[in-house]
Amino acid sequence: MNRGTWLLGRLAQIVPTFVMIGVAVFVLARLLPGDQVSAMLGERASDDTIARMQAQLGLDRSVFVQLLDFLAAAVRGNFGDSMSLRLPVLQVIAERLPVTLALMAIAVVLALSIALPLAFVAALNANRWPDMLIRTIFQIGLSSPVFYIGLLLLTVFAAGLRWFPVGGYGDDWGEHLYHLFLPGLTLSFSFAAVVMRNLRAGILAVLTAEYVDFARAKGLSAGVVLGRHVLRNALIATVTLVGLHVGALLGGAVITETVFAVPGVGRLMIDSILARDYPVIQALTLVLAILVSLAFLLTDLVQMWLDPRVGR
Amino acid sequence: MSILLDVADLAVVFHTKRGKVHAVDGVGFSVGRGEVLGIVGESGSGKSVTLRAITRLLHGAEVTGRVTWQGEDVLAMDAERLRRMRGGQIGMVFQEPMAALNPVLPIGLQITEALVAHTDLDAAGRQKRALELLDLVGIAAGRTRLGQFPHEFSGGMRQRAMIAIALAANPALLLADEPTTALDVTIQDQILRLLRGLVDDLGMGLVLVTHDLGVIAETCDRVAVMYAGRLCETGAVAPVFAAPRHAYTKALLGAMPGQGQDMLVAIPGMAPRLDTPAAGCAFAPRCGYRMPICDAGRPLLRDVSPGQVSACHAAEALA
After folding, report:
1. Does B191 fall in a domain?
2. Hey, are the CB atoms on B86 and A312 less than 8 Å from each other?
3. In this predicted structure, what is the pLDDT of residue B319?
4. Which of A9, A58, B183, B316 is most buried by a 10 A CB count?
């Protein structure tokens, strides 16, 4: 099999994945306690009113027809209107999604710029004090809940030292970056810890590989040996982990956005759940699931670029 | 003949959780320009460790003794001097080409990076030299091959590619660790001819580690026999093979096919553990010439005939 065929096959997987996500989201929404109609009409609505509302929303049709209807509408990007915000669901999500994506991007960049160099320092000093110190700090980062880290940073750097705003999002790019720095840092902690630990182990395993000894035997400088021969191979395993962690990062974004009052899809999700805004919950779940599966796709592409053996 | 590499009293100790392992224990030899030294011994006799100790590639090992490269003390070299010696003056070929080549980098880059490290060639010059090298080791269609990855090469081609990398910067000495072990006989023969040709034509020195006495007989000028991390016997190949003066060399030759004997003679017993070095001769428990003195004192290397050195109490009995 050549790489082109492999790539096409991998891209084609996207289609059934999305369909299955759609079905799962539809089923999950039906499994939620309470139903859409009584959430809209309240507990005192008469049976007649309920029946009319059900007919209006198409809920009197068979579940299978409703599913097909949902999927067909989803493909066209039509998720109906938000019940609490009285706006098209797609518009609500489109306004909030870039905020969350920016937050996650900041978190990933911060996490990688912390984790990459420290993983090298730890691995090259394995089981000596710099390694111990780095691992201890990251162990704390990994075991502290996101909301706790968030509140801590908020108290010290925003409320106390007043270096950063307490919440919100700002109006232009510079302000966005400024407002999202603390939330991004909060979100990056556990991610950085996971990457650091994994990369440290990867580097340690690769450091004693024959090809690294051979690279040294060729008379390459230490920088070339580490940067070209060690890092590249150690990254292959770490990239997979980073991809798999995007889901966890989204979960963290929900909490972080709540703590820092950032108007992203995480906050939107919480608000919608509290308001029982089913169309938004359903559409948002679908969009986030698709995001995660796109992240997996990206992971596979990066992996293919890093490791020439993939797909051959 | 000028001496390139001189090794004396080389000892390598690994500190493991279960104690010390004396992997190499008092080994000495020298290699000159245009000379091929074969190092032979069973698996675990310290052959590979000896090679890696010479270029200081061992991880967490205690290396003592003297390693002298063209008059310079290798064990005292600073990092930059050591880097220039590795690859630039001493090329190395590893045992497992699949493990020694980086799986994620194209072969071309793995050759040219050695040229970047040791020559002033520009990108075009490096490309040209890389093609020459592939041609030299008998890899056809070099231009395509340079862009390919190790997993796209056959076992024999990987071995050749590794030799091409080791030869990239025209080293004065090549340390080759079982360069032909994994290969079929035809390719083995081609590679040994290639190496011998480089020695004869360019005056390169070559240390060839092997457990195959046939390879030694065909390719080497001198041989060093190792057992349990110790040097048993060194000398020119012909006299050592005709009249071994160490009981282990004799036993090893007896186990080698094609010497006109009807039956191969196996060496009884197993190679010793290296965590507690024997007080006497390490080979004594398996030796047919064993005497009380063999268990009491360690036999020292001594001249047994012109150019032949042996560490065997029974050297005279073998003559």
Report:
1. yes
2. no
3. 74
4. B183
Angle at A11 between CA A8 and CA A16, to 5 degrees: 125
Residue A27's pLDDT is what? 86
Give how far Cα B205 sits from Cα of A10, A79, B30, B170, Å: 52, 77, 10, 11
- Do residue A69 and residue A114 come from a single domain? no
Residue B100: which of A208, A211, A312 has the nearest Cβ? A211
Mark yes or no for CB contact B94/A217 under 8 Å.
yes
What is the value of ipTM here, to two decimals?
0.91
pLDDT of residue A275: 81
Identify which of B149, B150, B110, B148 has the alpha carbon closest to the alpha carbon of residue B130: B110
Host domain of residue A7: 3-75
Name which of A216, A222, A236 is nearest B57 (Cβ-Cβ). Answer: A216
DSSP output for A173-231? HHHHHHHHHHHHHHHHHHHHHHHHHHHHHHHHHHHTSHHHHHHHHTT--HHHIIIIIIH
- Chain A residues close to B53, C-beta within 8 Å: none
Residue B179: which CATH number?
3.40.50.300
Closest Cα of chain A to B215: distance in Å? 24
Out of A41-50, A208-217, B109-118, B176-185, least confident range: A41-50
Q: What is the pLDDT of residue B166?
A: 94
Looking at the structure of chain A, the number of domains it has is 2
Q: First and final CA of chain B: distance in angstroms?
A: 29
pLDDT digits (tens, 9 = 90+) for B3-40: 999 999 999 999 888 888 889 988 999 999 999 999 99
In chain B, whose CA is at the least distance from the CA of A303?
Answer: B104
Residue A140 resides in a domain = yes
The residues of chain A scoring below 50 in pLDDT are none
Locate the chain A residue with the closest alpha carbon to B148.
A308
Q: End-to-end CA distance of chain A, in Å?
A: 6
What is the mean predicted confidence (pLDDT) over B152-180?
Answer: 91
Instruction: Give yes or no: residues A47 and A110 share one domain.
Output: no
Q: Considering only CB atoms, which chain A residues are within 8 Å of B104?
A: 232-233, 236, 306-309
A125 and A261 in a single domain? The answer is yes
Residues of chain A positioned with their CB less than 8 A from the CB of B117: 218-221, 224
* Nearest chain B alpha carbon to A233: B104
Give contacts of B149 with chain A, Cβ < 8 Å.
308-309
**pTM reported for the whole predicted model:** 0.81
- The reply to whether residue A219 touches residue B83, judged by beta carbons under 8 angstroms, is yes
Backbone angles phi, psi at B227, to 5 degrees: -145, 130
Q: Does B165 touch chain A (CB under 8 A)?
A: yes
Q: Among the three residues A75, A98, A126, which one is the final residue of a domain in this structure?
A: A75
- Are A233 and B104 within 8 A, CB to CB? yes
